[in-house]
Structures are given as C-alpha cells and as structure tokens.
C-alpha cells in the first residue's frame, strides 16, 4: 500500500502527537508541546499564504493579537462564552483580512512585506495604547473556557497542561487536514499556479487577485485561532503577541521547516519552539546559536529542512 | 602501581566532590527579563540574584545545604515566562521562585505559582500582583501608586498643583501613568497635559513644547524607564524649560545621570530608595549598612556597572527568601510560604519589610525617599 | 509660529536619523536585490564600538574610525559567509538569513561588549542654538549634515562613477553585467562594505542624541526599512525623502494631533502612500519578470 502525501503527513502527525506523551516526565513537557501546536497552527496559515501562494506577510502576528484579545474582551463586554469568542475572533480576523488584503495584496515582494508589517505594527499599537479597553502594555486577563471542568464531569481528569496539549493538538490536526485538502482543491491549485508566475496564472484564466485574497483570509483565520488558544491557555494576553518580532518568528518557523509543505511548517514551528528551551543551557550564548542555526539552515537547505530531507531520501531511493 | 593508586584515589575524590552537592542542595528558581525591552531592569536583577546565591554558598548555604540557582531569561515575553515557571516547578523541582521583571511576566509566573503552590516573590510594580492577596505570591518593590503618592506629596509641599504628565508607552510607563492619573484625583493635583512617547524615540521636543504651552502649568512628571527619560531630560534643558521636573523610580540609577548629562539633570527630583544615597544616610539609619554592602558587592560583581533600584528589589527578594529558608522547619513550599509571611523588620535596600497573612507587599510609603540630582550626584530632600 | 518651527526641527532631526539608516539599505539592495535586515545592527555596532573605544581612552575620531572599519569588515564577512553562498535563494530565505545575522550580531555584541545603554558626548557641545524662538542642538546639525553628505556622495557614486554604475548593472542583470566584464563578486563585497560603513557612521553620528545599546538595532532597522520603502527602495533620493517625511509626520502628529498616535499615523501614511504608489515615492516602474 502506498500512502498519498496527505495521508502520510497526517499519519506522521497523529503518531507523534499520541506517542510523545509516553516520554513526558512532567507537565512542563505538555506545556511546551501545546506551545508547539499553537505555533504550528499559525504557521500552517503561513504555509498556505507563503508556501502555496508565494505571498510574504510580516504582520501576521496582528491576527494572533485579534484572536487573543477577542477571547479576553468579548466575554468581558458581551458576555460571550470564551469558546464562542474563538469563533467570533476568527470571523473578525477574516473580515479584517478581507478588507485590508484587497489593497495590500496588489503590492509585491518587499513592498508587500512593509505594508503587512505596517498593518501588524498598527494592530499591536492599538492594543498597547488603548489601555481603557485592552489593559495596555501589561495585558489583560482571559477567562477560563471551562472545557477542562466539562471533561472532569464525564470522568476525564487532566492537568491544565495536559488538557491544552490534547486540545491544541486536536485543533492542529484538523487545521493540517484542512490545509492539505485545500492544497489539492481548485483554490489550492490556483494558488500554486500564481506562486509560479502571476502572469502565466492570469493567462490560464485564474482570478489572481481573488486567489491571493483567499489565501490571505484563510491564513488570517489560522493565526487568529492560534492567538485565541494561546490567550486561553495562558489566561493572559499582552500586546507583544501581535508584535513585529512575533510575526518574524512565525515566518521564520515556516521557512526553516519548509514553507512549501504543511509538515515542514509544523517541523519548523517545533524546532524554533524547542530550541530556546534547549539553548537555556548556553545562557549568554543562546542568541548567538539561534542566529547561527537560522543562517546555516537557509544557506545550506534553502528549501527548508523537511523538503530538503525529502529530496535527499528520494534521491537515494531512485 | 603507586601512580595508579594515586590516580584512582584522585578520581574517587573528584567523584565524591561532584556527587556531594547533588545529595543535598536546595534549588531556587528565577525567571527574569535579562534581554528584551525590559533588559535595563532585568539585567541588574539577574546579576544580583547570581551574586547572592554565590555569596550564600560561600557562607555555607542554608542549614549546611548548598543552594543551587536555576535562572531563565524570558526576554520580556509573558508566555515564555509562564513556560519557564512551569519548567522550574515541574521539571527542575525548585522550592521557591524569584523574578517577574515586568508586570506582565509577573502575572504569568504567579498563575503557575498559585496553581502548583510554590512561593513566588515578584520584582514588578503593579498592585494587582498582591491585591487581592494570593496565598503564595509576594513582592518586594513598592507599588506604582505609592511612587505617584510620594511625588504628589512633594509637589504639594512645594505648592505645585497643576502639572503636565509625559509617559513612555512601555508597560512600566503606561501602568504608572494610569496609577498617577487615579491618585491625582484624590490628592489635589490637576493634570493639565498628558503626552506619551515611544521608549526608543530620539526626540521628544514636540510633546514638551505642548506641555510648556499649557497655561498655569507648574511642574512636569515623566513616568518611564530606560533611555527615554534621559532624552526627556536633555530635551527639557534644550527647550530651556525651567519648571521643576520629576522622574519616576524607574530611572533611580547613576546611569540616568550619565545618559542625561549632569548639567541637564541638575535639580531633577525622583522617588528612590536608600540605595543611591547610602553615603548620605544617618549612621544610625538601619538601611545604611545594608545598602552600602550591596552597592559595593554589586559593583564588584558587575564589573563597575552602577546599582539601580531594580537590582535592589532582587537583593531584597533574595534576602527575604534566604531568611525564610533558614527559618522554615522544612523545605516544603507551604512551610517556606509561612516563613516568608512571618518576615518582620527585615531591612532591605528598598525599605523595611513586614509581611503578614493580609499584606504581601510589606512596605509603606516611608520606604521611598525623595531624591534630587545635584552636581552629578544625589541628595536627600528633607 | 515658534512652535511649528520647533516641531519641524524635531521632525528633521528624527527624520535625518531614519534617513541615515535608510541610506544604508540602498547600496546592498541595489547590488543584490537583498533588503538587509541586519542594517540596524551596523548602526548599533558603529555606536557601541565607538563607545567602547572612548571608554578605553581613545579620542572620539579615532574610536569612530575603528568602529567604521570594523563594521565594514563585519559587513564583508556577512556577504562572504552568508549571502554569497545562498545566491539564488528566494526573497523570504534571504530575509531569514539577514534576520539570523542580526540576532547573531546582537548576541555577540552582548557578550563581547555589554548590555548597558551608552551615549557618546556631543561633537560640538550641548548648548542649544536659538532660531526664531525654536532651539536646535548642535548635534542635530551634525546628523542632518551627515545624512545630506552621504546622500550626495551616494548619488554621485551611482551616477558619476564607473563602479557605481557597475553596482546598478549588477542589480539589473547579474549575468549581463558579468558578460560586459564587471567583476560582480567585487561589486557585492564593495557594496556590503559600503553599506556597513554608512550604517556605522550613522551610529556614530546619532549616539549623542539617541543612546545606544545592543538591542537598539531592531527598532532602527524597522523605521529605516519603512522610510526606505516609503521613498522607494534602492534610490538614495527615496531614502532621504522617506526618512525626512517619516520624521516630520511623527513630529507634526505629536505636536498638533496627539502624541498617542504618533507612530500609528506614520505607519498609516506609509500604507496609504503604498496603495497610491506601489513602488514608493521614487521607485522605478515595476517590470514583472515572467
């Protein structure tokens, strides 16, 4: 039996998610695992935008901020249950991406990069400056969604980190499945066509502007959901979540792992989430090594870790 | 043969030496923002904590057991702070935690501390860290509210009631701005101008020009830390504004005078701790010896870097924790918590701490001293 | 009236700081189509190394010269070891490489030098000059003069010298440039050295106004990048205009609207300008490569 790339990606993901906890000595590992999943959800969105459609965004953390603050503000001001706030935040992010995306996506390359950057900076600035609403730079508390308590009622008792590991893992799995389906859909094929050449795609009858906008909106929704999950499990959200450095981090995760593939993106997210935890032993040298790893991977494996590894394996096989 | 025996003996000795501390050591955890936007606060804190653990072990540790420090740098990110706090509690097995340079990171750490019932001493200013009182969370710095109160008291004593406010947009500046606006209402101070600046801005003359133009304005207060307040002070002198200028405790360090230029900073007042004026204190002042000793030790350990109030907060937190560890009947978290709560009359660099079940701040307004910059140094405002 | 003048003085000072950073971006971009996100670190290195030199007892001009030379060497190293081996990589990969380089440089600086914040003494004292009720610091004049001088030098370089034209030719079509006998390797090395040197010089000029620390590079690169894009990347005229415009917008917003929205207005205008001029104010017409 030969598995399709989609099936094999989902299989690898499921096995890793389920098998890893058997090696976890403490709750700390669940916490880091859930952070890997949260980052991965946002990065899968970047894979759709950058890997499929070839568009750069240096402001995607702005959507994480919108999703996160939705979970803090909607329950407080409109009495929405936090779980519904995730959905509302995602809808809001999608709508904002739709409005902002139209003019922004006409720009190309570095001009697109600086425009998205400007968008992200604006979002984080509003979150930091409008203290009466957002709590200012020190952030705002996020209510408990109560899902863990719900599980306890049916007899499943999990510690907080365990619960979020399982929950974020599930969301990531669904997100990855959707992204893989999208890849093979007509929309996905249109995106990949315009990645190759916009002129050629247009000649082939693809509505380039619409295809790009689709990718931007979808990736904004992924980012928003990731932001919501981060806020809910931290029970606190600060404007740093929407900051420029966080946007850069997300793009770096996608590109290091291999922006062209969902598994690559997830691998990159895992690598850059785990690396700082491992590098703490180096103390002052942490940043030096992190910078070095980023440069070396990009120089020697410009397609990213997973695609390069795949190519290597395939090359040996044939 | 003889050589082999000696070798084996030496090897055994080394092995014993290496194994001994692992048998009996007390692990203390710390999460501070050594890098990132709050590094000018977190760096002296980290240096102080490392130095004090070394000092502690040089003096024989706690009840004969060595203390081992596990310190992580959260880069100012609350999410990272939460992860590292989880790591300290779950993986490293620390008995207590110190840190939380900013209010955001402190709130993230205290959530972990309360959930896993491990004592935590925060180094951040906001009052919500200890109000309402949480069973396992303490803090050493005075609150921003107290700093505002101290400044306003001094202004009123000088007959200054209409003031301009200018704040950094970072967490420290924004939080103190909100507190000062709240306190002003009840203390008869009228804020007639309210401006902000980015912490790394190169020029604040437009904001200061607008403040200067407000009719009837009598003084200016700047809430912020790092280089912003130094730029404000230089722009203030550049514009030739002669109104009294007040800074916050966020710049209570000689580094501020250095960055501002002594001439520009002349006459600037700020609420600080005894730390900066150790030499000027009355010999009978209980804080005198404490602050002089810390200053000397820190400046030696940090290669000449000047002391700041923030390092002082870390010093006090470590003193309180060490004393509690020595007093506690066991190294169980609840026992340590009770011992911290029992801290009375402990003299730190910030003030004299008296914790209780209902007070996890332990300081009053007397801990602050109003300082004025004079001839490139500090003097006490009586 | 004197208020407006004061706001303009502030805007031009800050704008000149941004322009100095933005100008550094242009040469590397012109030679290689790479936006070097480590440009802010060159500015930081210029300031930090000078500060270390002065602290070690060197006179400021000598310390500054050493800082500029060292930074230029670091720029060449960046090209040789990180950019040249990744030739042909997509734009995102190059962005990541230069960001990796900036994290690396920051990390090394924090270990080799320190984490403190430092200021250089002003070149011509701190006594403000009074003009029609506004005040100017002598150091502001140094910064503005520096920005203008570098602009003129770059403009002459790109239009009047053979080497400068070779840089532009390399950017337009590397292969064709090689065919007409341009040593494109040398052009790349030269442009990294020049960009780094300009960044370091900017660092020396602005440190008396804007204190430096190992982390100052990110925020400078962000504003400098935005200024360069506003003006049109690759054109020295664009860098100068974009920088000044950004600085003036910030100062006038702080002066007349509200300081709370100073940076927001600046980025908002950048977005608006890009929608109207997708290649920036002075950008060349887009030619899409198929």
Automatic annotation (TrEMBL), chain C:
Keywords annotated in UniProt? Amino-acid transport, Cell membrane, Membrane, Transmembrane, Transmembrane helix, Transport
Which topology term describes how it sits in the membrane? Multi-pass membrane protein
Where does this polypeptide localize? Cell membrane
Matching Pfam families, A to Z?
Answer: BPD_transp_2 (PF02653)
Q: Name the GO cellular-component terms.
A: plasma membrane
Keyword Cell division assigned:
no
Where it mainly occurs, coarsely classed, is: membrane
Tell me the superkingdom of the source. Bacteria
Q: Does the keyword Isomerase apply?
A: no
BP-aspect Gene Ontology terms: amino acid transport
GO terms assigned for molecular function: transmembrane transporter activity
Q: List the transmembrane segments.
A: 7-29, 49-79, 91-113, 140-158, 186-210, 240-258, 264-282
Q: Which InterPro entries match?
A: ABC_transp_permease, BCAA_transport_permease
Q: What family name appears in the similarity comment?
A: Belongs to the binding-protein-dependent transport system permease family. LivHM subfamily.
**Protein name, UniProt field:** Branched-chain amino acid ABC transporter permease
Source organism: Xanthobacter flavus
């Amino acid at each position: 039996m030969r598995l399709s790339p989609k099936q094999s990606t989902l299989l690898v993901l499921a096995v890793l998610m389920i098998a890893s906890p058997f090696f976890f000595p403490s709750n700390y590992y669940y916490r880091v695992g859930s952070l890997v999943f949260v980052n991965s959800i946002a990065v899968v969105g970047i894979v759709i935008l950058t890997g499929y459609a070839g568009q750069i965004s240096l402001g995607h953390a702005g959507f994480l901020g919108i999703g996160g603050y939705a979970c803090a503000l909607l329950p407080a001001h409109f009495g929405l249950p936090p779980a519904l706030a995730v959905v509302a935040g995602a809808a809001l992010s999608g709508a904002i991406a739709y409005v902002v995306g139209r003019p922004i996506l006409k720009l190309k390359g570095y001009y697109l990069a600086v425009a998205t950057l400007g968008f992200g900076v604006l979002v984080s600035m509003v979150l930091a400056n409008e203290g009466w609403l957002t709590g200012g730079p020190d952030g705002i508390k996020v209510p408990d969604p109560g899902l863990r308590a719900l599980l306890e009622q049916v007899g499943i008792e999990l510690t907080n980190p365990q619960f979020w590991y399982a929950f974020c893992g599930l969301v990531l799995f669904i997100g990855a499945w959707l992204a893989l389906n999208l890849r093979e859909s007509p929309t996905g094929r249109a995106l990949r066509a315009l990645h190759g050449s916009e002129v050629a795609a247009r000649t082939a009858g693809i509505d380039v502007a619409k295809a790009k906008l689709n990718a931007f909106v979808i990736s904004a929704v992924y980012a928003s959901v990731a932001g919501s999950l981060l806020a809910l499990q931290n029970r606190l959200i600060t404007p740093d979540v929407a900051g420029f450095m966080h946007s850069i981090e997300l793009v770096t995760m996608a590109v290091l792992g291999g922006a062209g593939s969902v598994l690559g993106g997830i691998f990159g997210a895992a690598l850059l989430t785990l690396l700082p935890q491992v590098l703490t032993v180096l103390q002052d040298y942490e940043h030096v090594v992190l910078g070095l790893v980023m440069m070396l991977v990009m120089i020697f494996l410009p397609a990213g870790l997973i695609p390069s590894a795949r190519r290597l394996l395939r090359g040996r096989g044939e | 043969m003889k050589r082999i025996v000696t070798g084996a003996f030496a090897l055994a000795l080394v092995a014993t030496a290496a194994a001994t501390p692992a048998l009996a050591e007390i692990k203390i955890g710390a999460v501070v923002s050594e890098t990132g936007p709050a590094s000018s606060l977190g760096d002296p804190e980290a240096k102080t904590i490392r130095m004090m653990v070394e000092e502690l072990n040089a003096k024989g540790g706690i009840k004969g057991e060595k203390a081992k420090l596990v310190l992580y740098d959260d880069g100012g990110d609350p999410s990272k702070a939460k992860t590292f706090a989880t790591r300290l509690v779950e993986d490293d097995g620390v008995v207590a935690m110190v840190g939380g340079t900013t209010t955001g990171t402190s709130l993230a750490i205290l959530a972990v501390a309360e959930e896993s019932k491990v004592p935590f001493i925060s180094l951040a200013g906001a009052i919500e860290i200890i109000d309402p009182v949480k069973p396992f969370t303490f803090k050493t710095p005075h609150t921003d509210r107290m700093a505002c109160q101290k400044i306003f008291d001094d202004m009123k004593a000088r007959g200054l009631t209409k003031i301009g406010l200018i704040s950094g947009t970072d967490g420290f500046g924004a939080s103190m701005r909100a507190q000062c606006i709240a306190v002003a209402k009840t203390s008869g101070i009228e804020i007639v101008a309210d401006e902000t600046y980015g912490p790394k801005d190169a020029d604040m003359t437009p904001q200061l020009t607008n403040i200067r133009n407000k009719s009837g304005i009598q003084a200016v207060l700047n809430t912020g830390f790092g280089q912003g307040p130094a730029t404000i002070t230089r722009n203030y002198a550049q514009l030739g504004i002669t109104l009294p200028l007040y800074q916050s405790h966020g710049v209570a360090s000689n580094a501020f005078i250095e960055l501002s230029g002594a001439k520009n900073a002349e006459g600037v007042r700020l609420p600080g701790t005894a730390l900066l004026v150790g030499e000027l204190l009355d010999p009978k002042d209980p804080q005198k010896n404490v602050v002089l000793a810390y200053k000397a030790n820190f400046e030696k350990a940090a290669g000449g870097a000047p002391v700041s109030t923030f390092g002082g907060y870390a010093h006090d937190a470590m003193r309180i924790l060490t004393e509690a560890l020595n007093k506690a009947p066991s190294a169980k978290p609840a026992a340590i918590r009770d011992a911290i709560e029992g801290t009375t009359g402990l003299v730190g660099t910030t003030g004299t701490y008296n914790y209780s079940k209902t007070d996890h701040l332990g300081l009053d307004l007397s801990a602050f001293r109003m300082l004025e910059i004079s001839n490139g140094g500090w003097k006490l405002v009586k | 009236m004197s208020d407006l003048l004061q706001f303009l003085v502030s805007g031009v000072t800050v704008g000149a700081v941004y322009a100095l950073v933005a100008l550094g971006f242009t040469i590397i971009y012109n030679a290689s189509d790479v936006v070097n996100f480590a440009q802010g670190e060159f500015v930081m290195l210029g300031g930090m190394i000078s500060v270390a030199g002065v602290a070690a007892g060197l006179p400021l001009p000598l310390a500054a010269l050493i800082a500029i030379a060292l930074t230029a060497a670091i720029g060449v190293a960046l090209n040789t070891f990180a950019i040249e081996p990744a030739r042909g990589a997509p734009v995102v990969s190059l962005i990541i490489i230069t960001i990796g380089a900036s994290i690396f440089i920051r990390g090394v600086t924090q270990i080799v030098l320190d984490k403190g914040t430092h200021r250089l003494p002003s070149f011509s004292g701190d006594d403000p000059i009074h003009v029609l009720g506004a005040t100017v610091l002598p150091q502001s004049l140094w910064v503005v003069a520096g920005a203008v001088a570098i602009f003129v030098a770059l403009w002459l370089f790109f239009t009047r010298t053979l080497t400068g034209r070779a840089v532009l030719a390399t950017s337009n079509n590397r292969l064709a440039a090689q065919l007409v006998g341009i040593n494109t390797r040398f052009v790349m090395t030269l442009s990294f050295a020049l960009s780094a040197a300009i960044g370091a010089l900017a660092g020396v000029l602005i440190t008396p106004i804007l204190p430096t620390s190992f982390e100052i590079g990110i925020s400078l690169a962000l504003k400098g990048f935005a200024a360069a894009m506003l003006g049109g990347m690759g054109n020295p005229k664009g860098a100068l205009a974009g920088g000044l415009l950004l600085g003036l917008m910030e100062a006038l917003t702080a002066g007349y609207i509200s300081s709370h929205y100073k940076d927001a207005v600046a980025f908002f205008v950048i977005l608006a300008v890009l929608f109207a001029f997708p290649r920036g104010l002075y950008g060349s017409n887009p030619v899409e490569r198929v």
